[in-house]
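Local shape tokens

___
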Amino acid sequence: MTPDELIGRTVAGHRLIKHVGEGGTALVYKAEHPERGPTAIKVLRPRLGQDPIAVKRFLREAEFGVRVVHPNVVRTWEYGEESGAYFLALEWAEGEALELFAARSGPLAPLLVAQIVEQVGAALTAAHRAGIIHRDLKPANIMYDPATQTAKLLDFGIARDAELPQEERLTRAGFFVGTLQYVAPEALSGELVGEQADVYSLATISYYLLTGELPFPGKSPRELFQQLLTQTPRPLSEVAKAAKFSPGLEAALMAGLERDLSRRPATIMEFATRFCAAARSEPEKKKGFLSGLFGKE
């Protein structure tokens, strides 16, 4: 079945009108609902419909999405199975993946990064209070609308329930989950991680948005894996020499990248509060401010 074959069909009242994306496990469509208006529909790939683990992971994403209701989280309206197809009906979020916006705009001004971190931090705090650790926080999993400067968190596909017994985990022991460029060092062993793993990932995103680079320069997975386990992240001032960030901003950001958990902020709110306060105290640089808001000049 090709993605276009589903266009025009109706799933739980949502008429699929356009294929907008896909991943390894699901196809994504823009849809119309008579009451909700535009929605997004994720449909599990047919070949995975017979795989119990794939189906359980897909439905777990939906269950977690239902549990986390927040203005900065893409809302999950409903989910289930219809005519042999498993689906998630989601809020339609305007804008694009933060990954695309950042790649097009280049390094963003501290003020704009603070706005994004504050919103994503609030979304993650809501998830953590619901007992959910995201574990795959990265720019590709954040929707960003430049017109309204609104960020929304999505994709709880590999999130975990903090209260889930170990025997019910869907991840094999010894295998890490997440995206290597943004994953916390403690996750590389495949052991259970807590809120501080999401702190590390949010700090890495902040670093990338400010500099256009990542804390570790590894070019291959093997090299990056080794650097995460043994090396100290490159100081912000070393990577972004021209920007001349203040010591306060650098200290706040690098604290979130501490490999030692006793030195890393214990909660998302602790990190976001400190980072945003430092970012907002940075002197405004006209060129960077305009570039950060509207893209490259």
